[in-house]
Automatic annotation (TrEMBL):
Pfam families: AcnX. Residues 1-413 form the Phosphomevalonate dehydratase large subunit-like domain. This is Aconitase. The keyword Iron applies. The keyword Ribosomal protein does not apply. It comes from Plantactinospora soyae. It comes from the Bacteria.
Amino acid sequence: MRLTDDERSMLDGEQGEAVQAAMDLLVRYGEVLGAERLVDTDNVCGANIFGQRQMMLCGASDPDAVFSEFSLDSPRPVEITPMKAQSYQLIGPMDTQHWQVQGLSQEAHDAIEESESYSARHGIHLMNTCTPYQVGNVPVKGEHCAWMESSAVVYVNSVLGARTNVEGRESTAAAMLTGKIPYWGYHLDDNRFGSHLVEVAEPVTSSLDWGLLGYYVGEQVQEGVPVLDGIAEVPNLVKLKHFGAAAASSGGVEMYHIPGTTVEARTVAEAFGPRRPVQTLRYGARERRQTYEQLNHTARDSDVDLVMIGCPHATLSQIRDVCRLVQGRKVHPDSALWVFTPRAIRQVAEQNGYAQILRDAGALLMSDTCPAIGQFLPKGTRVIATDSAKQVHYLPAIMKVQGWFGTTEECVNSALTGTWQGSL
């Protein structure tokens, strides 16, 4: 890999041990990927909040030692210096308000809180969300970033035209310390053209429709770049959020084009550039039905223990919609309704009275985490329902529960009645 003089000085240890370890990681990582060089980045989103489990595995409680091992793959502890790049914490393991609902002990809470404080002292912005683009980190077209979190990567690549691959904890931590990331994959123009044409023959209007379409597309194209043709309505942020998250769950989609909507393709021809489609797919009523049944294949029992809204983290508009469904009603005593959103949006929801409406209904508005990342559910939960194709893909596998997928209204109604009555 070709290094600049500045990058070489980092690798030689002239800018400190932490920067040296980070550059060593990036060079090894880039060489495996076949990258010829690094590229500057000043927008890094990673996950560096640790708890008791990581400390136990590391055999040390010193935060520098834990960061060195888990974030830098360093065989020996190094003193971590302030982050060079603008750095942001993604979704983490704990809601600072409702951590007791998660079943965390005081010791577990204190360890995570100290880890957050350590990150803040090193210049990592504590956004604690899987949707940084909702709360102030909105990269511009062409901006080179280094982001983890597949649903956020596919959103900023496709909708905003920023440039990032799905990075890992180690590569983002190294990017935070150096302001560099290997120049490969979706940083390169040639890799951003379409690979598969998807002819959408079925109306796609609701968030459920976009989740179904995304899940189908991801499973079909895997790591390809799909180009959707036949979309009649302009989707909003929520629908694109659901689409990308689903496509990145059933497959490895990191970028897509909707000609006339997403930023890098005004037409189908522009989306493919010099390429020709390797495959043309047709999404019709049969494919929609099959995808719906696939997403609901783990569900058998109609009694619903938990309804989860907000994967990826809910927008203020989604919170308002849930409030209108529950206002003046109560969550069934045998069920629970949890809504997840970024902490900054929860504050606005408090100001707007939405949080109080949810509390009055017996629901919880949570932030900073989610059941899949934090790995927590109400005690005894066997059946969950969600309007997220991504969450119903992962949660049954992670937490060994049954999962229903449906519209937001169907999900909320199941929390109010305790019974699933959704259908396609």
